[in-house]
């Protein structure tokens, strides 16, 4: 078995009130979540060996998280389960179209970060990259692996309730992008971080950073665009009945990494050799993974078999 992809970031429990009310019981529904943890689960379900560096406790929520991660084949790095740590939560509110907004009760301080020999990729993002003291540890870690044969992917996943100042947040994103080969943003991230600018303008800004080779921007029901130094692709989203959007962006991210992994473009390759055709295919694969997640409650990414059964090989 190949060395696992390393995912670094928060694991928490999503408390989704509106989804539970739709089920008729009127009680909040607690489900495992956290953007990096969702990406790790999505990768494992798509058949990619995955290790998660995170931190959660051994309370009831922590036990729920542990069972979820282990049950989906995610390896946990040493120190990720800490009996003295209180497991973080995110309370999600769904609007009439099933789009989620969040309020967080979170502490983030990762265990020691290290790179496994042969690791093809490191992924990080979301709250873990902006909330101290963990954000500084992630930044230092990415700098320490800059010369290693590993591909770095970043999903900032802007959270205005955590970092309300878009100017300083964009500065932090730019700095992390300088240590990343691929950056994924959503249209909502773009609107918050760079209001008034088009996705292509924002992608062009990020591609001026020396290391960044590719920027992918999701556009909800309109699909996604992918921009590399040599190509631009646009992929439309399939028509689906949306239940909610919780975890859709994370499913997209995991499928994007899995698609690149299957094409052997990770590791020392650092996306070198990424053709327009490759870019289109991996973005299309990711759009369709996210679409499946939107048809069911919560952060529930598809397995490889479910993806194939729904959309074909």
TrEMBL record:
Keywords in alphabetical order: ATP-binding, Kinase, Nucleotide-binding, Transferase
Top-level taxon: Bacteria
Entry's Gene Ontology molecular function annotations: ATP binding; kinase activity
Domain spans labelled Carbohydrate kinase PfkB: 5-302
InterPro entries attached to this UniProt entry: Carboh/pur_kinase_PfkB_CS, PfkB_Carbo_kinase, PfkB_dom, Ribokinase-like
PANTHER family in UniProt: HEXOKINASE FAMILY MEMBER (PTHR43085), PSEUDOURIDINE KINASE-RELATED (PTHR43085:SF1)
Family designation: Belongs to the carbohydrate kinase PfkB family.
Protein name: Fructokinase
Organism of derivation: Kribbella antiqua
Lineage: Bacteria, Bacillati, Actinomycetota, Actinomycetes, Propionibacteriales
